[in-house]
Structure formats: structure tokens, C-alpha cells
Amino acid sequence: MSRYISISIVFGLLLITSCKEKKTEPMPEPSKEAITDQPPKKVLSPHTSAMATIGNAHIHIDYSSPGVRDRMIFGGLLAYDEVWQAGAHMATWIETDTDIEIDGKELKAGKYGFFTIPSKEEWTIILNSNWNQHGKDEYDEKDDVIRFKVTPIIADSLKEHLEYNIDKISDTEGEITLAWEKVKVVIPFKVK
After folding, report:
1. Which of 1, 44, 92, 106 has the highest count of CB atoms within 10 angstroms of its CB?
2. Which residues are registered as beta bridge partners of 147?
3. What is the pLDDT of residues 13-53, one digit of tens each?
């Protein structure tokens, strides 16, 4: 009987020792093939920019471009007569390395937040000294540098994603256009 107890003790010690020494293998990493088989996630409001050089002025607009996605935008998703950051996510900004003139007002070289107040009959265009903010969270009218009104153009065709363009009219004149849904806004400017 003591022989069976001795064998049981030895067997038990071997079992405990083997359990302690057992090493776990790390989980294998997924293969590159498995990763690339997954479709890339679609960005709903891609970050983009528009740039142009007119005369000696380099003008850059940085924005996120939301899509219509079967929604009513102006007067729907974006209420009329309220400040809009003129893009998605971070506020849209415009930068010029040379003084320009917009609506008869001088805009000094620098970087500015670009905001609008859309309405049916006219839009208010706003250039604000606070260019680095999320949406319109920190927008304050007292920081406005230039504010003026433009008449929107209603198009027949739909522009799915918000798009800015800077077009050269002459060596000293250009136009900034904002187009989205069926609305287009044109902002003429002159290089100083």
C-alpha cells in the first residue's frame, strides 16, 4: 500500500512540475492577406484643400468635404440663418501669403477661419481671426475680420461633395467658389 502512495506522490509531483514548465505559444498574427481582404473604411467627409497662385499671392483653403447622401442640406441639415463652419469637423480655413481685397475690404496676409451664414436669398461670408477650432464651437463674432453678403446661385445639377475652387480671372483678380448640393457661392477678390 505504501508502494502505491509513493507512486501516487511521485506522479503528482511530476504532474505539478510539468504544468509549471508549460509555456504558452503566442497567438499568430493575422497575415497581410487577411488584412488586405477587408475593404477600406469609407471616409464620409474627406479632408482636402484647394490652392492657387494668382499674381504674387498664394491662396490655400483647407476643409473637410461632407457629402449630401440623400439629405436636404441648406434649410435642412444646415438651418438657415445660423453660422456654419463651411465644411465638416474642423473649421474651414483660408490662408494668403499676400494682402488681398475682398468686397472692397483689405484682408492682410495670414490664416483665417472661413464661416458662412446661409439663407435662401443671400449668404453672409465671414473671415474670422480664430482659424483653428472644431466646427463653430469657439466662433465669436467679435473675432470677425471681414463680413459681407453674396447672392447664392442655384444650380440644376447636384454637387454630391462640398467643393472649393480658386480660379484665376487675371493676374490680379480671382474667384473663390463654394459649391455643394445645388448651391454655388462665388467670392471675387483682388491681389494687392
Report:
1. 92
2. 126
3. 555 555 554 455 555 565 555 555 666 777 889 999 999 99
